[in-house]
Amino acid sequence: MTMTRRTMVWGVAAAALTLSLGAVALPETVCAATPAAGAAVEVWKAVGCECCDGWVRHMRAAGFDVTVHTVDDMMPVKQAAGVPDELGSCHTARVGGYVLEGHVPAADVTRLLADQPRARGLSAPGMPPDAPGMDMGTGQPYQVVLFGGADGPQVFARH
What we know:
By secondary structure, the protein is of the alpha/beta class. Helices cover about 30% and strands about 25% of the residues. It has helices spanning about 5-20, 50-60, 75-80, 105-115; strands at about 40-45, 65-70, 90-95, 100, 120-125, 145, 155-159. The chain has a seven-stranded mixed beta sheet with strand order 2-1-3-4-5-6-7, sandwiched between helices. A hairpin with a 6-residue loop joins strand 6 and strand 7 (about 155-159).
């Protein structure tokens, strides 16, 4: 197999991401949470995704310190983070040892960090039209799901 420069760069990037997300790969390794004010959030998003940019603005407005990584392919990011396919959304983030998948409201992230449940993280599955960053104003309810815990996926919040 001939390895191109791009293939090598993506391989190194995927390995680095896997190592950086290693702390969230198993529920037993959940780190102590940090307070929401100024908590560091790392986000991986696809090129040109405006709804992801809206969610980043929402998180920053809530006081989170957000760093954004733009990638061509989100699948390796989601797989490294242990996001179940059925809970997938557009962007993946990590904060305080937890994974955040999709348009999870900042208030739910603050509660996650305060409660520190033994789980992998939270997901707002799909693309809920009224979730932060989507902001379509349809009035359509959606749920945020806690996943990766011993009891399986559970509703964490209803919006």
